[in-house]
Amino acid sequence: MTNDKKLMLLAGVLALGMLAGCSSASAASAASGMAGSMPAASEAEEVSSEVRVLPGEEGVVMPIDQGSLEEMKTGSYKFAANISSVDTKKRQMTLTVYGYDAYRAEDVDALDVGSVFSTHLDGAVEAQNVTVEKIEKNEENGTVSINGGIEEGGVDLWRSGDIYRTVTYDDYPVYYMMGELVLPVDDSVTLSDSSASVDAVPVETNGTIEVGKAVSEDKDNWTPYNTTVFTKDGVVSNILRIWVP
After folding, report:
1. What residue range is the signal peptide (predicted)?
2. If you count DSSP H runs as helices and E runs as strands, how many of each does the chain have, helices first?
3. Where exactly are the structural domains of the chain?
């Protein structure tokens, strides 16, 4: 799969999580702020037919392959992240990448009592196989509750298009830590920040030095719940931070 198609695939999958849990106003602001990086509907439909699932044991439903840390070092991606620092002299960003489990709709629709699927239960770093003991499907609102859902230590899934993703309280995905990366930063990197309030107008910051300053001035508030990092060929090109409750 080409880097551009990986970017379009992850834009379709990961955008669900970063816009979930926030108000319609902030979601609209986030979407419009980075509209150039989002795929058009026709592109999303084209890419969805090429969705790859992770390899696994026979008979186990596996999540969609969202890319590895090694691939992210050279590819074009969009991912949730916790930004630790920006070294403006070396033009490098240190960040922790977070993922969440998403599944092809046909795989989830086929789940029944006795089925086995792989998931990062409660955001655990390592995935584990879970056997379906009970399952409730609500086609009207596009949700699936497995083994009592999150309230009983199970899993809740929410559908958008041809993909289901994990969902927890406040509609956020169940994030799990993939690991730390140190990536080069483009000299013309752009930060779009609407995290000040629910109806804040995005503040645009450009250039490595100014973006690095913005990160250092608010260093504890760049989390996977509000921060999305975009890369092109392994270089950080854009950052999006939204308001969260």
Report:
1. 1-27
2. 6, 14
3. 60-241
